[in-house]
Design goal:
single chain, 348 residues, cytoplasm, 43% helix, alpha+beta, globular, two-stranded antiparallel ribbon
Length: 348
């Protein structure tokens, strides 16, 4: 009787099978990550079409660029350093172009309800989403709704134009709002100033200020066109879209000469005004032409200067005035100049 040694061949066979399975997994993993400049152009074009008319501006960056500037505790979670992300800011026109029309539409549907009731109803419709805003800031809700609506249309519109793999890559995109904090450390989920800097949208200035005999570093961002008249709204992360050849922008500041080194005294003035007297808004004009810069309307300034705990009263007063026949009415098509006369700063 002859015995055939099958152990060795079986080991080889199983080794081949194991290697074959590993190769399959590698191929699937590689195919699930889209690396294509066409995708970047497509995504930016669609999102800008949806969001720019509403007063938002967008600029792409790589997750690795951002992670290089922040501590490990603030890193963005992504499978690769060359994953695509997009920084989102609001320009001065966002308040009238996006926020007020959406705000009025909520109260048209929910006549007679308080702001808290309106936002609670909105929250009940978004149970599947994460990073929901709180019930005390309608502006965060307006941004959240606009961005998620734009992402939804991006996915739907591209289903017929892209491959299945590319469409799946869009499906994993997530919006990280500026207000979200980490569960244990309570640190922000995204350091928006650093994201704005690496994306080229706004220069992040830092300077040491002495407070009670202690020197501490503070930061403030300036947009090359708007100065300080803008707001960070978060980032959109695309974990399955990789853009290793994305050119890194040179971020410029309205402070002369536009690039470092900057005048030490000018930086000290900027940071001090921002830290100690931010409601005066003087820091926003530093470095820009005060005669031509686009600023927030008086109504927008009133809202932003109102503490979050009092904004519900501010909003409800605004809605009440808009319904009054003898009061100035804010329409969806009203320009900031038309709305400047409605100042509620001392009425809340």
């Amino acid at each position: 009787m002859y015995f055939v040694n099958v152990i060795g061949p079986l080991k080889a066979i199983f080794s081949c099978i194991s290697g074959f399975q590993t190769n399959i997994q590698l191929v699937v993993s590689t195919q699930s990550e889209v690396c294509c400049s066409k995708m970047l152009e497509h995504v930016l074009s669609k999102l800008k079409t949806e969001l720019e008319p509403l007063g938002f501006e967008l600029s792409p960056f790589l997750v690795g660029w951002y992670n290089e500037l922040v501590s490990v505790k603030l890193h963005l979670d992504a499978p690769s350093s060359d994953c695509l992300a997009i920084c989102l800011i609001s320009s001065p026109m966002m308040f009238e172009a996006s926020f007020l029309p959406l705000l009025f539409s909520w109260f048209e549907k929910e006549d007679g309800q308080s702001l808290e009731d309106v936002l609670r109803n909105l929250k009940s419709k978004e149970t599947r989403k994460t990073s929901l805003p709180g019930l005390n800031d309608p502006l965060d809700w307006s941004v959240f709704i606009r961005v998620n609506a734009a992402l939804k249309r991006l996915r739907e519109d591209n289903n017929l134009l892209l491959t299945e793999t590319e469409s799946l890559a869009l499906g994993t995109a997530r919006f990280v709002p500026d207000y979200v904090v980490r569960p244990v450390s309570r640190l922000p989920l995204i350091h928006v100033q650093c994201a704005g800097h690496v994306s080229g949208l706004a220069y992040y200035h830092k300077a040491c200020i002495k407070v009670k005999d202690l020197s501490k570093e503070y930061g403030c961002s300036l947009h090359p066109k708007y100065g300080g008249w803008f707001g960070f709204r978060g980032v959109i992360v695309f974990p399955d879209i990789r853009c290793p050849e994305l050119p890194r922008p040179i971020t410029r500041s309205p402070l002369l000469p536009g690039l470092p080194p900057f005048d030490t005294e000018a930086l000290q003035t900027l940071i001090t005004e921002y830290r100690e007297r931010w409601r005066d808004n003087r820091w926003r004009d530093i470095g820009v032409d005060e005669q031509t810069v686009c600023r927030y309307s008086e109504t927008a300034r009133s809202f932003f200067n109102t503490p979050p705990s009092s904004r519900a009263q501010w909003v409800e007063r605004l809605i009440q005035m808009s319904r009054c026949r003898t009061c100035p009415v804010l329409s969806r098509s009203s320009s900031p100049a038309t709305q400047d006369h409605l100042t509620l700063k001392h009425q809340v």
